[in-house]
Design brief:
heterodimer, A: alpha+beta, 2 domains, 6-stranded mixed beta barrel, 15 helices, 10 strands, B: alpha+beta, two-stranded antiparallel ribbon, 12 strands, 17% strand, elongated
Chain lengths: 409, 409
């Protein structure tokens, strides 16, 4: 093996220019792949986090059909006790119950249609970033108080400040007219205009009162620190829920179907591009190795006449490719990692990215992370494809007849 | 002239001395060219679809609003010009399509449910080509006149509200004095939209009917104008600005939808980067092929030099070889790209990732768009950069020392 390795090593340096060009092709695509994949996966992570942690959560318990129709009467009965028992049995604080309704919020000057959420003041901060984004005033703290927090855009549009009163009008669970006067205690600013204009929160007890909920609500939101644990958690919760109530546990993919598909759509176009890059590199390797085999026909003929089997020669050619592949992999990952690391300090942005990122709740400047996966997945694929490309030249050796080969000029 | 003929003939024959190598290299160029053009056509098509959808989903190419409407889309911020004057001026100005609308946030209620919606008061005679709703595909009927007393709502919203054609709903909003303005309407039609969110969000009613209900006499909230080409909105913008004369805010669609505006701007840059990246990935193989072609002919080149062939001819010959490779690859690559795009020109169904594409703002049918300028760009980049890349091996070949080259083993 040592001898074969030494042969392979010397062979590839017979033509340094060619070797560097082939390795260069690998490096080039490896560097690109490392940077692109780091950015991509980083962005996906942020998209998921920012979208889910703002409000949706990773899992929700809802009544059957509520997700599609969001009707007032598709409720989870005794929602507060159920949420409490889930918290106890799962030993987790990031579980909270909510009720939701649509209504008209009116100040002295203006009226706007909004989504009213009844939340548990003590547990809501565990499942949503909104309580932490209060810019003015405070979050809710009494389960039954006639208080409300609203978004900054809505506050501006309604021309209200903390301490002012709002009138809420809507339809109760039984279809009756629901109305209440509430005091604005806090104003949040999430930076996401949709949330800041459309969502208001009141304490759940008060909500149940105003909308005639009779102890019920619409969703129990569950957050988990590790997104990979979602399926397991979902099974656990399903087992803990009271049977025969028609309750369903939805994971974030079901709650925000657009999110995973947006990622998939983006991934498929990215993978198409990566695929083209990798195949072009493979062509380059195929050509080089084929040439290097052809120009050594005489030499191989002599070696085979001396008794070396075609199989061992084939392995020599593959080993030569592997050495170049490893060089390309290490250098590419190193260089790509360095550039990514530099982006992780200085941030990555391009003109127009700010407007595009805002649509997906992403910041205007992006700081990718270097991870082992993003560092090696791309280069590893390039390596494997390069080896594949060298199989054809290596197999050609089987057809080599020593006597004819030695006659080739 | 004669010399050029010989040069080309030599180059052509040299190219086919090693068929396998040439074919592999051409395959790489074909793949690269195909990927450049195909991918670009897909991306262009996607952006065009997004923009068309988005423009048909309300904005128009140029919009006119009250200056504060953008932040506060309420009834209080109406265009401070009477509808009579607007109609006279814009009808006279010979725009392709234009319409004025009342557009306010409202709450819609059936007997059972309430929802927040965007209420649009339209004059059906003006809107036919402007909204995403095609009048003939509406279940029931679309509004017939500006003082129609019915409403047309989305199919999804109807399901959420448990209502259908012929049933009554109540719309509630505010008048400029912030008194509640509400009115019962009969649902006369249900529309379907490519983007489901539109079916939940928009409700159409007669413009004159809404003006009466909201007590705003003959005022409107927005005026939209569509010109000939969405890529060039400046002429329309200038004309509208002149008519409005500073009395209201006039904006181009690229300002209204910052995301799409940025997309359109970034696209050209993206196409160029993509073409260059693919070229670079190919260029390693190209240079390598040329280096090998020169290297295996060192003695022959030395002989030609010794016999008095001028170095410039050698240089030209190598470059001609390289250009022949590129042109062959480009021809086949372009043809292949055309052949793959052609069957897709009526749109490809990509509904597997449909909801995700909706999140990106695309409907689930993708129509690739082959732009002549992109094809030219790809071909020119490959030829020019390919020429530059072949200079180095060609230069080396032309500057061999004849004696050294001939005696080289």
């Amino acid at each position: 093996m040592n001898l074969v390795f030494r042969l392979a090593w010397r062979n590839i340096w017979r033509q340094p220019r060619r070797t560097w060009l082939t390795t260069g092709a690998m490096m080039f695509s490896n560097v690109l792949l490392v940077i692109m994949i780091s950015l991509q996966f980083g962005m996906y992570g942020l998209m998921i986090d920012n979208t889910l942690q703002a409000f949706t959560g990773h899992l929700q318990v809802q009544a059957h059909g509520y997700k599609e129709d969001k009707k007032m009467r598709q409720t989870v009965p005794d929602i507060v006790p159920i949420a409490r028992s889930l918290r106890e049995q799962l030993a987790s604080d990031t579980i909270a119950a909510r009720g939701s309704a649509f209504g008209l919020a009116s100040s002295d000057e203006r009226s706007y249609g909004i989504a009213v959420f009844g939340v548990e003041p003590a547990y809501e901060p565990g499942v949503s970033t909104i309580p932490g984004l209060i810019q003015q005033g405070r979050f809710l703290h009494d389960m039954d108080a006639a208080e409300i927090i609203i978004g900054a855009v809505l506050a501006r549009n309604l021309r209200v400040d903390t301490g002012d009163e709002l009138t809420l009008l809507g339809t109760g669970r039984d279809g009756s007219f629901a109305a209440a006067v509430v005091t604005v205690v806090g104003i949040f600013d999430s930076g996401i205009t949709d949330l800041d204009r459309n969502i208001v929160e009141v304490p759940l007890g008060f909500f149940q009162d105003v909308f005639f909920m009779q102890g019920s609500g619409h969703q129990i939101v569950i957050n988990t620190p590790v997104i990979d644990e979602v399926p397991e958690l979902q099974r656990k919760i399903e087992a803990l829920l009271p049977v025969d109530e028609g309750l369903i546990v939805h994971d974030w993919d079901a709650l925000q179907p657009g999110l995973k598909q947006a990622i998939k759509a983006d991934m498929s176009s990215a993978f198409f591009m990566y695929g083209v890059l990798v195949i072009l590199v493979a062509f380059s390797v195929l050509n080089t190795q084929l040439m290097s085999v052809l120009e050594r026909t005489r030499e191989f003929g002599v070696i085979m006449a001396l008794g070396l089997t075609p199989g061992r020669l084939g392995r020599l050619v593959l080993l030569e490719t592997a050495i170049m592949g490893v060089m390309g992999l290490i250098l590419g990952a190193l260089l790509g990692g360095l550039v990514t690391w530099w982006f992780s300090l200085s941030g990555f942005a391009y003109p127009g990215m700010e407007e595009m990122a805002a649509k997906f709740n992403l910041p205007a400047r992006f700081y990718p992370q270097v991870t082992a996966l993003s560092l090696f997945i791309g280069p590893a694929v390039v390596f494997v494809f390069s080896l594949f490309a060298a199989i054809y030249p290596a197999l050609r050796l089987n057809r080599l007849r020593p006597v004819d080969a030695m006659r080739v000029t | 002239m004669h010399q050029v003929g010989i040069l080309l003939q030599l180059a052509w024959r040299n190219l086919w001395r090693n068929k396998r190598r040439t074919i592999i290299m051409i395959a790489a160029i074909v793949l690269g060219t195909w990927a450049m053009i195909f991918m670009t056509a897909l991306m262009r098509g996607m952006v065009t679809d997004m923009i068309k959808d988005s423009i048909s989903a309300m904005p128009g190419h140029v919009q006119v609003h009250h200056p504060e409407y953008r932040d506060d889309p309420s009834i209080a911020n109406l265009i401070p010009i009477s509808e009579k004057e607007l109609t006279a001026a814009f009808d006279a100005a010979d725009f392709k399509i234009w319409a004025s609308r009342v557009r306010v946030p409202a709450v819609i209620s059936s007997e059972r449910e309430s929802r927040g919606v965007t209420l649009l008061g339209v004059d059906p005679a003006y809107e036919r080509d402007l909204t995403f709703v095609s009048y003939d595909d509406v279940e029931g009927r679309f509004l017939s006149t500006s003082d129609d007393s019915g409403v047309v709502i989305g199919r999804k919203l109807a399901k959420m509200l448990d209502t259908r054609v012929g049933k009554r709903i109540v719309l509630m909003s505010q008048d400029p004095e912030n008194d509640i303005a509400d009115r019962g309407f009969r649902v006369v039609g249900l529309f379907d939209a490519n983007v489901t969110a539109f079916e939940e969000k928009y409700v159409f009613a007669g413009k004159a009917t809404l003006q009466k209900m909201l007590r705003i006499k003959d005022r409107v909230s927005e005026l939209v104008v569509t010109g000939e080409d969405y890529r060039n909105v400046e002429p329309t913008y200038a004309k509208v600005s002149a008519l409005i004369d500073g009395r209201a805010e006039v904006r181009r669609w690229t300002e209204v939808d910052a995301y799409l505006g940025a997309m359109l701007r970034v696209m050209d840059g993206f196409v160029l980067v993509w073409v260059i990246v693919i070229f670079l990935a190919m260029s390693f193989g190209l240079v390598n092929t040329l280096v090998m072609a020169v290297f295996e002919r060192v003695r022959e080149i030395g002989l030609m030099l010794a016999l008095g062939m001028r170095p410039i001819i050698i240089l030209g010959q190598i470059i001609a070889e390289s250009l022949m490779l590129l042109v062959l690859g480009l021809l086949i690559g372009n043809a292949l790209a055309w052949a793959t795009v052609q069957p897709m020109k009526d749109g490809v169904d990509i509904s597997i990732v449909g909801e995700g594409m909706q999140m990106w703002g695309v409907s689930s049918v993708l129509t690739p768009e082959l732009l002549v300028s992109d094809i030219i760009l790809a071909n020119v980049v490959v030829l020019v950069l390919g020429f530059l890349a072949s200079l180095s091996p060609a230069w080396r070949a032309a500057h061999y020392e004849p004696i050294e080259a001939i005696t080289k083993v």
